[in-house]
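ugh ok fine here u go
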Amino acid sequence: MRVLTSVAELRAEPTDVVLLDVRWALGDPHGRERYLAGHLPGAVFVDLDAELSAPPSPAAGRHPLPSLQSLQSAARRWGLSAGSRVVAYDAGPGAAAARAWWLLRWAGLGDVTVLDGGLAAWTAAGGELEQGDVVPAPGTVVLTGGGMPVLDIDVAAALPAGGGVLLDARAGERYRGEVEPVDPRAGHVPGAVSAPTTEALTSEGTFGTAAVLSDHFARLGVRPGTPVGVYCGSGVFAAHEVAALAIAGVEAALWPGSWSQWSNDPDRPVATGP
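structure:
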């Protein structure tokens, strides 16, 4: 599975690449404004909360998966058609772009990648930015679904005891239960392994190599043939970790509801500490 496109590769690509600007950060509602102030030439803005998620609820979490129909409508607005080559990026650390990558792969598209290093890598290489909105001609893509493995809350809960590995992609202090800035309870799913997704990145904000990432996940208990699931706060940073695992040659399932779903159910046990 191809996951990444480098800045050098993008600059050499034909002009019919569909660029998706997924400018999003937890607690920051100004992604569109930042996009309008400067984005890669031709990039279309993607609203993670409105287009890459269904409405939030305590039962489903903060960023449930959108319906295939609503995602298809959004993808057509972005200009996607059959055979479109798609590259998604954000302003770092790549989680929002990975959410778009994962969703479109889940929806059945094959040629979707993340711009490695995102906006920072583009500008550092001398790439130009343009201002204002980009409104492409509507596309005709048909999404089919079933392209990526998904876990529900019960399968995720049973994974550690069943011989699998459940990775928690949040920051270590949230996993340990020392802080919880968003969700109703602090801690982690019993048996889950702390695996902050930022540890998959280099100091430049790009993904590690396949060899480096393979060693990293092996230290966390990921072995050939081991079932692997990933969660985070609400299924966004988990997509970034699924992408890192894919670079390492590991297929992992994403749990969309993640901690925002688990922590809203008082009957679910919570573990704390390392």
